[in-house]
Amino acid sequence: MTHSTGPWGALTTRGKAFLVLGLLMVGAGVVLGYEDVTRIGLALVALPVLVLVLMPRRAPRMTVTREVDPPRLVPEERGEVEVRFRNLGPRSAVYLAEEHLDYQLGDRPRYILPRMVTGEERRLHYSVRSRHRGAYALGPIVLRQRDPFGLTFRTLQLASRTELLVLPRVVGLGEDRMRGSSRGSEGEQPQMIALHGEDDVSIRTYRDGDELRRVHWPATAHRGELMVRQEDRPARRRAVLLLDSRAQAHPGSGMRPSYEWSVSALASVARHLVADGFVVHLLTDVALRDGTAQHPVELGPAMDALARVQPEPDARLDRLSAAASSFSSGGVLLVAAVVAHDDRELRTLASIRQPGSRALAFVLDPARFGGPSTEDAPTGVLAEAGWRTVTVGPHTGIPEAWTSLRATAVGRSA
């Protein structure tokens, strides 16, 4: 794609000076009757015009591919980007190549792209680093071509783009395992039934090849035939992580500290629970729209999703609460990062906790993040419904907040 708007826009500062000066000299020579001055003026005018006419107008046929090492970054980590240009057309010209980047990734790299014959490939390298999580676009690449005299230029754009993900900050939450709910044996047995079915814990008749150590003697005596224990599958406890993305609830604009705290907290909890054997569901407004909220998510896709999420003006906590309510029975662990912004919506969230389930909440105090103050304790609405809560601010450590949530006391804050 050519970005020059016309012949005048295709001239450099030098080319415009030549043209203007040449026209002035032609006019002065004609008025004053100096033919030599007129000839010099015509030469100055003719040079940029001639270059404009003779300058190649055919856009190069090139492909652009990128590789980022490592493919996923964390904040403050440096990544190396390799850009490969491959010429599919005739011999190309010499270009100044500029990669378009988000300003948070650093300065835009510029390189001289030399001539390439058909099929030739060139590789350029540059580094990127971001202080914040997010999904960033690498590209497009803008090519600038100048004539040998520096009088004209062309701007072309290679539309290839590559997404770079910077994952949320993740902190360690300790080595202690997460206890299950009060239902069953720390909540593991109900989860095994819910995820694998009653057959996982049932008794069946003996089959050839079954080990005798698996014979269930009480059932054998009762039924009058050999009965064995069904082979158990590992109990997989289930956790639901809920992210409050209401733009009006998180104070500020742009990179909102309260939202970044929430994302980092849930990312840390997700890694901790997956390592502890939990099946994790991630509830965000994006997950509700694309239909993935009902499906378990692996740690890698969960981190990718949390890298992309942003506060949304149309986000509503009651929609997330309704989706979470379908998981709230059977010993599920619910972990929410929510802003104490609207009592009505908080009460809706509080009401989804059912007996036998465990609900924990990082409650972000908007006043401590620079927003309006709240009259009541931010944790009150949830704590009254049996949630374990901790009030957090910008300087609250995630490990300390998590330790507080795991403690026996209810409503303890950091």
Top keywords for this entry?
transmembrane; transmembrane helix; four-stranded antiparallel beta sheet; elongated; 414 residues; DUF58 domain-containing protein; Immunoglobulin-like; membrane; alpha/beta
Please describe what this structure looks like.
- With 414 residues, this protein is an alpha/beta fold.
- The protein folds into four domains: 13-54; 62-166, Immunoglobulins (Immunoglobulin-like); 198-229, no CATH class; 238-406, Rossmann fold, CATH 3.40.50.410.
- The protein is 29% helix and 23% strand.
- It has eleven helices and 17 strands.
- The chain has a five-stranded parallel beta sheet, sandwiched between helices.
- Helix 9 links the parallel strand 15 and strand 16 (358-364).
- It is elongated.
- The chain starts with 12 loop residues before the first helix and ends in an 8-residue tail after the last helix.
Task: Output the number of helix runs.
Answer: 11
N-to-C CA distance: 56 Å
Report the radius of gyration as a whole number of Å. 33 Å
Biggest sheet: strand arrangement: 14-13-15-16-17
Share of helical residues: 25-40%
Number of strands: 17
The CATH superfamily title of the largest domain: von Willebrand factor, type A domain
Report the CATH architecture of the largest domain. 3-Layer(aba) Sandwich
Poorly predicted tracts of residues: 180-201, 408-414
- Helix-strand topology string: HHEEEEEEEEEEHEHEEHEHHHEHEHEH
Q: What is the strand content?
A: 15-25%
Pfam families: DUF58
Protein name: DUF58 domain-containing protein
Transmembrane segments: 17-34, 40-56
InterPro entries: DUF58
